[in-house]
Amino acid sequence: MHKICILLLIYSIAWSQQRSLDARIDSVLSKMTLDEKIGQLNQYSGGFFTGVNKNRLSGSYEQLIREGKVGSLLNVFGSEQTRKMQRIAVEQSRAKIPLIFGLDVIHGCKTTFPVPLAEASTWDTAAVALSARWQAIEASSAGIHWTFGPMVDIARDPRWGRIVEGSGEDPYLGSLMAAARVRGYQGGDLAANNTIVACAKHFAGYGGAEGGRDYNTVDMSERTFREVYLKPFKSAVDAGAGTLMASFNEIGGVPSSANHQLLTRILRDEWKFDGFVVSDWNSVGELIPHGAAKDLAQAAELGINAGVDMDMESDAYIASLKNLVNSGKVSQNTIDESVRRILRIKFRLGLFEDPYKYCDAAREKAQTRSKEIISAARMIAGKSIVLLKNDGEILPLKKSIGTVAIIGPLANSKRDPLGAWAQQGDSGDVVTVVEGVRQKLSAAQVLYEQGCGITDSSKNGFAAAVAVAKKADVVLLVLGESLAMSGEAYSRSRLDLPGVQEELAEAVCAAGKPVIVILMNGRPLAVPWIVEHSNALIEAWFLGVQSGNAVADVLFGSVNPSGKLPVTFPRSVGQIPLYYNNKNTGRPGDPRNHYTSAYFDLENTPLFPFGFGLSYSKFEYSHLTLNVSSMTMDGSLTASVDVRNSGTRAGEEVVQFYIRDLVGSVTRPVKELKGFSKVALRPGETKKVEFVIMPEHLKFYTLDMTYAIEPGEFMLFAGGNSRDVLEVPFTVTQ
Ligand code: GLC
Fold this sequence. Notes:
The protein is α/β, with parallel strands linked by helices. The protein has 3 domains: about 1-365, TIM Barrel (Alpha-Beta Barrel); about 380-570, 3-Layer(aba) Sandwich (Rossmann fold); about 620-734, Immunoglobulins (Immunoglobulin-like, Sandwich), CATH 2.60.40.10. Helix content is about 30%, strand content about 20%. It has a 6-stranded mixed beta sheet. Strands 4-3-2-1-10 form a 5-stranded parallel beta sheet.
């Protein structure tokens, strides 16, 4: 009884708070003119443009703000700049409604953290949430209220440049990362001055672009759309994300910014989302080239009626909505509802109480590049590194190693480790691999040659590179992509090392010294020659400002690598799409049988499977057992597996659990990640890791599209990646 009273009290407090907030919103709304309401739905880029399709350099919007024609600005940065623009809105306009300032804080604001795909490799939601928390602390101190993140698009095609901004190919991992980032950005209270509103993007299906070409057509079954691409968005909404961003792409012929089924029926009616939706840059205006709208007025009508509340940079709403309301094509209520959603977020941010609470120059100075945020960046960068090969346990290196030759176009790059969307990141803050290694060793021990460029064809540096390799005891070969080869509008038709880097590797390996390759890239790369001929291979992604220190920490063993791949690495671009949770087909690839699903010139297996990553420890799996061999459709069962560290170093292992539904009313993937635990093990220690299988883990969109569990035979898998697993069958009964 006591508990019920407490719950009722909590509910009634929350309900009364909501009522009072709604009352305050309605009070503001009732005093606004239609023009001012439409102004709240209009967003401009105030400082520089980050979007596409518009070659309009953003000008000054002071007068438009004074006239109440702007509700939000993006790309205005710094407590001074935001204070200046906010003052115009709250002191010089009639309605005096505060602006909300948005910025792409995708993996850091001034202090650049590892790119999101790297952070996903940690499989550590606490670390990822902490990273987002620090990013929010720094961004909010610079006047930012709202980040256009997390980007939660599932990507199964590494040719798509924006794979770097997300959490990879799996909906379960992607959902956990989405929620972690939302919680990190928004904290426990949006009214605090060190929290910012999240924006799950790009809603939805953007990563399914045909050919991996950015902005391209997306066409998939509703089942795949819901089971794979929508899952992380639902997770972000359930975690309380205050906003979503509508994506550029069409889905099955309907562009997201005109998609009522997506933006209203699913997002609001099914998911009960009460925040607001912002368009992507000019995505309302792009309904015209999509062929969904004949002109900007029709684009505005489609966008607002579908559920896009705020129009980023297309001028469609500010130019057309008043006429559309007067002509009855858009109802006053639709406008009011969109304004309410935006005002609700501004109230929750505390902007009506104190519009200048985020514009504190002293706090900005104290929080920007603080030593705490730098050490947080180094911590998560170390966790993001994935060890892919370590022949003869050549790693970790000893500081008594003798001479180290560091070679490659990314070895001493100050800019590329920032990665895509580094926003306000400063290449001057980057610690390169050469600098990081030099901090571990004496200067005399380290030789460096660039060897070649990232993309150019000159081999003039090869001789000098080979010369230092010959003088060295070990070679660190740092290869990969430039930061401008992934991210928005940077789709690649190839997945190999650009330029002459592989030829550099051949020349350096021919010198006959042990070669450790460190990859810096924003997507999976198809590098079979490198895998075969290196002694060790590290996936370092783009790790941000602490890149070189984190790589050196791993190379010399102060950090034992624990990362796991959140994406499949193919052997060739010709295998794309290649992902672990694929269907079996009626003729699964079998090298012994020609008439099966395979290429005759390449095996089906990936270069590295989803979930793969080595450690300086050795982890062995045994005794995968179930407490019972069957469960009812509303029951559960507990799996447990022993994991032993048979190595000589303490380390962390991501123990992964996958299931397969052997027979369903529709075909089911051969594996689906349904749980994982990151466990720390001392040398010789064994831990029993448990995983409770619940009905929620087994539900899917059945033949008639109901989301349900079906009885039948299942398989449970457990292991350190999606390929090398133990398995045990179980049954689900009515
Ligand atoms: C860009 C991107 C989007 C970003 C927005 C504002 O075009 O698609 O992710 O948040 O514009 O910069």
